[in-house]
Every structure is written in structure tokens, then in C-alpha cells.
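User: Predict the full complex structure for these chains.
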Amino acid sequence: LGADLTSMLHSLGIPRDSKRHRVLDTFQSPWAETSRSEVEPTFFIPD
Amino acid sequence: TKTEKYHLVFTEWVKLLQRVDSDDKIIFVFIRQLIEKGVLAQSDSFVEFIKASLELSVLTFKESDPTGEVFTAIDALGKLLMKLFVYQDFNKYSRSEYMNIIFSVFLLVFAKDHENGEGSFNERPYFKLLSNILYEWSILRNHNFIKVSDSQTRKELANYDVDFYNTFASYLHSLQPFAFPGFSFAWISLISHRMFLPIVLRLPQHGGWEKLMLLIIDLFKFLDQYTIKGNISDAISVVYKGTIRIILGISNDVPDFLIENHYELMNNLPATYIQLKNVILSAIPLKMLVPSPYGVELDVDALESCEEPPMVFYDPVADIASLKKPVDNYLRIPSNSLLKTIMNGLLREDYELKSGIGYDTLTVNSKLVRAIVLHVVIEAGLENGRTSSNAVFNTKSSYYQLLFDLVHEGSIELKFQVIQVMIEQLRYPNIHTRWMIFVLKNMFTSEGWSDEKSTVQEIILRSIIERILVNKPHPWGLSVIFTQLLRSDKVKLLELDFIKRVPEIENIIKQL
Amino acid sequence: NNKAFQNPLFKNELEFWINTKKQLLQPYKEMPNKMVSQLESSLLNCPDSLDADSPYLYQIPLSLPHPTSIFFPNEPIRFVYPFDINTPVENNINNNDNSANAISDTENLNKKHYEDMYSRTSLAKIYTKFDLDTLFFIFYHYQGTYDQFLASRELSKNRDWKYNKVDYCWYYKEIEKLPPGANYNKDEEESWRYFDYKKSWLSRRCGNDFVYKEEDFEKL
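Assistant: Here is the predicted structure of the three-chain assembly.
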């Protein structure tokens, strides 16, 4: 029967109603349990 | 020994990086000296140096206090490899060869440690090094390599970008869980790495899609192999959880990848993974607004989006092989002999063991069935665009006829396989979904089944219900057809024998 | 006897790599004990988000290192902002009625909240609460870091400051609405401010001779 994915979507930061935004660029790890800290995404600093 | 000398040089590098910024002039001088003083002059010495450095870094990790800095040497190695990538002259060999040498050395040192480690193998330093390489490259490539001052080098690096990711992906493919189970969780973390996955998904002209599909299929095959009914290990459950989370991320960010590759994904997805199947097939293009599938006034035929054919990255025609001619000929002019040829071609030479819901073996080539059904659907969609919907939304059309005949003439197993694959085509609003709703509804109410009407209806309904019963999401087209069947006056679901025979199902239908 | 196995560079390792190819061609139907324990060991050692984070290499220290409590960690903290604490934007969406929350956030409601891939990270959310002073401090003293990036993002996208790449100063355009009256030809007046990081560490008004030249400013 699968599982209720609400909490998984929530932990991914995927909203249901408000505007969609990218999640893979700040993806911490495939599992919520190993995603307890945020990771540094790509960023650009002009010279 | 030579190895000890390499260790000394590498240790100097590690220490240097702890004292100065990595863009400091001293760093450049150190690297130039590495080359000029012969440490890296020949490819042999280069290989030996990298090997020694990697082995030392891994050893340092294993011996470090786990509460302190364990990755100092690994971090330094990653930085060194990328500095060399940028600063070298590349007269003797190309950047591509350089990368292959590095990854090959990595692979061999890694393989020996994994197989021979006798319990001391730890995936983390290897993961860290690959993660660092991804990090270094993503910094370098930012804003089209604008930080690289030399314009010639900048051009070369920009040209190499797609190759970089495809090379990385190729080596990841070698590191897959079947080959190195001790690296499985690190591997899954790498294919979904924030500096790999979203970039590969968006490379120009889908340049990374083929290799990415290879990796995802590696994962699916691994899951398929070890998803044993009634006995799924905790480790495999965790792998599954990570997989569905990654696919959800892709569905959110780049749904087109799942949409255009759904065929290959379905070919390799374990048969009992219904929710994951739904997640993949529920993907909707980014800017599309989708009307509620439950709306009483929903008219699928009136939707503009339902005129559009979905993109397909991998043409199933390639998989139809020897049956392409009979199928295409049948679509031109249906005939019994062509049908017989096609049906014979769908039989396997030997049993395939396949863990399904209610079955454990297949005698029918399910992949070939999928290829043919999708091919017919694609052709129907094209015909709709070329001529008119009357040519295609017509139970007398050869497109409908072929699918009908396969279900009519086929064994129960073939009926089931064909219908399963047809129901996979119920996705977001598009011409394939719309046509498939037409086909399935007509098949459900058709009087042309002779004494098999009930069987066909049961299989159609079973295939729909097993996808609808699981937790969300559900593909739009699937919800549409089920809603229409529930509401239809023509179809009185509760009066069907096979529904009445199973009280649990009868109750569900009653409630819905 | 294959030549590859004679190569002294690889011969020790090659056989281990070759052996793994067997499993790719013909995977075990049931996991043998060795494989089970390897898989479990992999699960146990599973890399976490800290492992996947950017390598922590040398960073130029602040010019005046300040003592911190021994209880403060040396590594930067990357915690996860609790999702159930809404940002003012999310409060705005959820509280369309005149509830207490909406009223207390009036100050924040007037602030911009630029949306991009960084918006939902804890750090970016925290930076929306920083004073200008703090943002400038981070900008000038943590050069080349993600922190500097976030500070300039906050200054540029949410606070409307512009960065001058010639004098390395941040500038702000103030628009003052003039009261309707006979003495003025216009209904608003523009004046510019800049942040003086070199001397006074204050924001100062630009002189009347200041001319805004677009090409001098960084397009962020």
C-alpha cells in the first residue's frame, strides 16, 4: 500500500500549495535521518 | 622507498593547505615544482603518486580520532587533483585521459580495500573524495568557468563540462551496489549529490540523461534482485526509502526527466513497487496547470493539453526489433496472420522469475509488450496530429484494433501484461493519456469479447484498483478514468459478478 | 597471463576489481553472508550531510581573533531551521485574517523576501533578521565565503542596496516623497547613501555631486 509521503515531502521541503521551488540543489542526503544539518549549495562570488 | 617519498611530498601539501588559502601563489608554485622536479613528470610516477596519496589519506582517516578532523588529508587530495587539472599543460595527454587515470587509480585502490579490507573497509573517505571532486568542479564551472583567467583554458574546460559528468557517471556505474555492496549507501548518496544530480539533469541537450538513467536502473535492478516476497531486509528497506525520496526530488525539480524516460523506468522497476510506479507516472510538466480529475464537468476531449503528444527520450521502436514490421504492417492493414506473428513473438523462450502481485513467473516478454503498446500509442498520437481525432478515437481504427486483439486472443497472462502497460499510459493531460482513456473505457464496455467480457473487465479493474488503493500520489489520467467508471451509468460496477464475489473490494467501491 | 596483470602499477589491485565484474553479470540470487555484512556495514557507515558538505579548508582568519567560549564548536553550525516556524512570507499567506500573528509581523511584512534556491535554507532565513551592521561586517570580513555570498544576497535582493565595484562600497537610494506644494516641480526626491567601511563604519549621505553610473555597479 505504500506509505503516506506527507512527512517525506515535508522533510524534502516540497510544498503542496505554495509556489514550487528547487530542492535538489540543497539536497542533504537521501535519508531524513542523515540530513540533520544543511549543506552548502553552489554559490558564486564576483571578483 | 619511493612510496615513502610520495607520502612525504603529499604530507607537505596537506600541511601547506592548512596554512594558506588555496588560491595563494604558493600553491601554484608548489604544483609547478611537483611537475618540474619530476614527481609528476611521467604518467607512471603520476599514478604512483596518486595511489600513494590516496592510500595514505584513507589510512589517516581510519586512524583519526572520529570526533576530530578525519578528512584533512582527503580534502587536500581532492584539492590537489583539481588544481592539477587546471594548471597542467596537457601537452602529453588530454584532460579526459587525466580524469580517467585519476578515476582508475581510485577504482583500483578502492576495489582492493573493499575486497581485502577484512572488515576495516569504510566507505566514507572514498565518498568524501568523490564529493570533494564534485564540489571543486562545481566551483570551477560556475558562471561558465569565468574564474579561469586564461581564455584558452576556459574554453577547453567549458567544452569538457559534459564529459566530466559523463565520465564521473561511468565510474559510478562501476561502483554500483552489485559490485561493491560495502559502498551501497555512499553510492546512493553520490548519485543524488546536490552537485551531481541537479546539474546532470540540466546539461545542454539532455547530455547527462543517458548516463543518469543507467545509474537509476542500476539501483532499480539491485532493489529488484533483493526484494523477496515476505523477506525484505532492513538494509534493502532503507535503500528503497532513499530511492523514493530521490525520485520525489527529481519529480519536483525536473519532472520532464521522469516523463520522457518513463518507458525505461517502467521496464526496470520491481513489479511490486506500486507507489514508486505512481510517483514516476504522476510527474507533471513544470508549468502545467492540471484540472481536478474528479470534476463532474471535466471533459478530457476538450482540454487543449490533451492534444499534445508527450516527449519520449528513448524510442521504444528500438526494442521491438523483429516485430516492428508485422506491427507496422498491422497498423496499416490489420490481419489475422500478422496478429499471430506478433503474438508468437511475445512469448518467451524460458520462464522469467518475476516477483509480481499474484504471480512469480512470466512466460510473456513483458518488456516487448511495453514496447509495442507504447509504439502503438505514439503512432496513434502522431496520427491524431496528422489527420484528425476521428481517425484515432475510433474503435475501428487499427491502433485500437491491435490492442483489442492482443487482449482478446491472448492468454490471461498476456491480457494482464497488455492492460497493465496500457494503464501506465494514464498520466498527465496529453494525447496519450486521452487516447488511452478512450481505449480502456471502450474495452470495458465492449460487447466484442465473446465470453471473455467479465475476465477483461476484471483485469482492467484490478489493474486500476491496485494503483488507486496505494497511498498518493496517483497519476491524473488514472484518477480520471476511475472516477468516470464509478460515475458511469453504462457501467454498473457494483453489479459485476467479480466485484460481488470479494466483499472487501465491494465495500471499497461502495464507499467510493 | 594477460598483459594488464603484468603492469607493476596495477597488478596488485586489478584482480580485486575484476572479481566484482562477476556480480554485475550474474548477481547472487540470495545475498551470501559476506555481502549481507558488507551491506550492513555500509548502512552503519552511511555518509551524512556533514560528509557531503563542502571541504573545510584554510580560511583567512579575522584580523582580530576574538576569544570564544570553549563550549562553542569550532566548525560552522549548519542546523536545520524548523519547518514549522514560518517565515513572514509564509505567515502572510496563512494569516489572511487580522490575527495577532499578522499584526505583530507588520514590520516584517514590509520587508522583501526574494525567492530563489537559497531562500528556504536556515542561514538565508536568519540573514533576513540581521542588522545592516552585521551584514556589512560579514561582507567585508568573511570574503570569499558562503557567508559573504549570503550577506550580499540579503543586502542586494531584500534590502535593495547596490554594490559599487569601483570603490567597493554598498550604496542605497532613498526616495523621499515630497509634500504637495508650490515650491517643488516633482513629487519625490532621490538621495543616495553609502556605507563607509573604511573609516567611520557608518552609512553616510553622498554629496550632491554624486552621479549614479550603472556600469560601476555589480549586477548581482
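Residues 24 and 41 of chain A are 10 Å apart (CA to CA).
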